[in-house]
Amino acid sequence: MSILAPLAERMRPTTLDGYIGQTHLVGDGNILRQMIDGGNVSSIILWGPPGVGKTTLARIIAQSSKSPFYTLSAVSSGVREVREVIDKCRADSSSMFSTGRPILFIDEIHRFSKSQQDSLLGAVESGIVTLIGATTENPSFEVIRPLLSRAQVYVLKPLEAPQLRELLDRAVTTDIVLSRRQVEVRETDALFRFSGGDARKLLNILDLLMQSTPADRPIVIDDESVTKRLQQNPAAYDKNGEMHYDIISAFIKSVRGSDPDAAVYWLARMIEGGEDPEFIARRLVILASEDIGLANPNALLLANATFDVISKIGMPEGRIPLAECTIYLATSAKSNSAYMAINSALARVKDTGDLPVPLHIRNAPTSLMKEVGYGADYKYAHDYPGHFVRQQFLPDAIDGTRFWQAADNQAEMALAERQRQRWGR
């Protein structure tokens, strides 16, 4: 690796032993580690924020499997480029010298159009190529369903403080350039805060500190020096367009915090910066569910309508419904009770496993099932006054558990009172 390459590129690991983070995927005994060690890698999509190791992991997979490795960027590649690469992969697969199924890595696969994604289907389905896609966007929204059904999605997480510290120590002691300098690590709070769980961002900040410190002086890493350097050179901090994530975070928190003026300001910043309007609209849909929810169910209807109208009219007119929805959500009553309820239920499912469905609410499509008690004693709610009758619906082991707790707003208080009258609790 050339000493002229950026620090982040010089520090890119080539094996799993040097890979930091994502232990839930690549730790001993975990799914991707098993796939890589077994040499049987299927098509996958790596979903996570920038700088968490998606591209690095794809390269490690290719190197460990000794497979031909091709890359495409969704930003600069069209259907023609996709077909050309697939033709090369087809030739590799049929070659007597082939060492493994070719791997096609597509960075920012969420930017591929439907036709571009369609052009991948045949090659992936027939096994001509193993697809590894990387995306910072939710694949459920950005990747066509037929392609999703042929690839497993794995979520990569931001690096936490211990992992960032490990990366910092490794850079200081092993990098061909940085290890020759005197480095004094005094404080890391600002460094880790500005990195935001992004390994590339941390290494870029280190690179900036090194370049701005004379060779005959020690490189001091403390909160003051990191903050000062980033204020003097903000472009270095965001040279990969990562301000995108800070601004969308500010936008979300402003809506959640019921400040329509701040929310519209951050909306304007995104629009002026050329942000994809559908990206903004999707965040509004999520906000309507996560942060407003049952306090005002109409919020989700408006957010979904905004997403629909944006896809129809585009920009610049789309700025108006985006602003309308943003202001409505920011000024609406707030509740995260649905969000908390599903998280609580998911945690209980993980803890308790596959508890059996009570017999009386099981489906009984055959006579044998009826004979063994499936559906027996089930009470059909519509046969009772008020279309309600008390009976057990949860598995025996967790009967009586409460997952949904009404939030303190008028709409949910009414729902809670109705439930108290029905269930006496």
Give a structural overview.
- The structure is a single chain.
- By secondary structure, this protein is an alpha/beta fold.
- It is built from 21 helices and seven strands.
- The chain has helices at residues 7-10, 23-26, 31-38, 54-65, 79-94, 114-126, 139-142, 145-148, 161-174, 189-195, 199-211, 223-232, 234-237, 243-256, 260-272, 277-292, 298-313, 319-331, 337-352, 367-371, 410-423; strands at 44-47, 69-73, 103-107, 130-135, 152-155, 183-185, 219-221.
- The strands form two sheets. It has a five-stranded parallel beta sheet with strand order 2-3-4-1-5, sandwiched between helices. A two-stranded parallel sheet has the order 6-7.
- Helix 6 (114-126) links the parallel strand 3 (103-107) and strand 4 (130-135).
- The longest helix has 16 residues, at 79-94.
- It is globular, with a radius of gyration of 26 Å.
- Residues 235-242 have low confidence and may be disordered.
Topology overview:
Layout: H1 7-10, H2 23-26, H3 31-38, E1 44-47, H4 54-65, E2 69-73, H5 79-94, E3 103-107, H6 114-126, E4 130-135, H7 139-142, H8 145-148, E5 152-155, H9 161-174, E6 183-185, H10 189-195, H11 199-211, E7 219-221, H12 223-232, H13 234-237, H14 243-256, H15 260-272, H16 277-292, H17 298-313, H18 319-331, H19 337-352, H20 367-371, H21 410-423
Parallel strand pairs: 1-4, 1-5, 2-3, 3-4, 6-7
Helix pairs in contact: 5-6, 9-11, 10-11, 14-15, 14-16, 15-18, 16-17, 16-18, 17-18
